Amino acid sequence: MRLIGDNLSAERGGDPIFAQISFTVESGQALVITGPNGSGKSTLLRVIAGLLPAMEGQMRLEGAGDNWPTPAAACHYVGHLNAMKTALSVNENLQFWQHFMGEPALGIAEALDEVELGHVGHLPFGYLSTGQKRRAALARLLTSHRPVWLLDEPTAGLDKASETRLAALMKRHLDTSGIILAATHLPLGIKAEELRMGDTWRG
Ligand SMILES: Nc1ncnc2c1ncn2[C@@H]1O[C@H](COP(=O)(O)OP(=O)(O)OP(=O)(O)O)[C@@H](O)[C@H]1O
């Protein structure tokens, strides 16, 4: 499988954010998107996820067969917001996402164990600490299968042990032919190519 971004450009609120961004990421590979604040890292992830239109260029997914008809369909997107309801329990939030995303993979309890949150599934999401909230959001990656993980600052709020745990989960995804694209200011602890944003910024 190969995820290709071909000559992408994007606008927000009518303003150009980036142009002429191209990349190819193969199964088993990670691409880390770096660049200064405002250079368009999050915007690029949202274009790849199909949440924003590309003004020019196109996304393609090659070799995915019929399972994943579009690049967006093949993606898990974990933005810098956690996308979990504060009043619902962690279990209820993850159940919602598993139902919404389909392609069930790990059970809720198993996924929470993987991020060492097995003891808080019954708590309202809003009760969790900042790092626990991030780990619970990342557990969504494990409850439904998607070959492509799009991660926006995935380590924000994580302590060292949790960063190491996430690196192990990402490595496992890559070792099972997954693809990861991550916007980050920090090293993620996995082998990755780098796409540096900012040089083609027109703003
Ligand atoms: N809805 C919007 N309308 C107009 N401009 C927007 C909108 N959302 C984002 N922007 C602008 O788009 C630019 C790129 O933002 P983006 O969040 O993609 O950058 P980033 O590289 O991820 O930054 P950071 O490192 O701070 O997370 C910024 O200048 C931002 O102000």
Short structural description:
With 203 residues, the chain is α/β, with parallel strands linked by helices. The protein has a single domain, classed as Rossmann fold (3-Layer(aba) Sandwich), CATH 3.40.50.
Describe it.
The protein has 203 residues and is of the alpha/beta class. It has one domain (2-196): Rossmann fold. The chain contains five helices and eight strands. It has helices at 41-48, 90-101, 108-114, 130-143, 160-175, and strands at 2-12, 15-26, 30-34, 56-62, 75-78, 148-152, 179-183, 193-196. The strands form two sheets. The protein has a five-stranded parallel β-sheet with strand order 5-6-7-3-8, sandwiched between helices. It has a three-stranded antiparallel β-sheet with strand order 2-1-4, covered by helices on one side. Strand 1 and strand 2 (15-26) form a beta hairpin. Helix 2 (90-101) packs parallel to helix 4 (130-143) and helix 3 crosses helix 4 (130-143). The longest helix is centred in the C-terminal third of the chain and has 16 residues, at 160-175. It is globular, with a radius of gyration of 17 Å. The chain starts with a strand and ends in a 7-residue tail after the last strand. The chain binds adenosine-5'-triphosphate (ATP). This is Heme ABC exporter ATP-binding protein CcmA. Keywords: ATP-binding, Cytochrome c-type biogenesis, Membrane, Nucleotide-binding, Translocase, Transport.
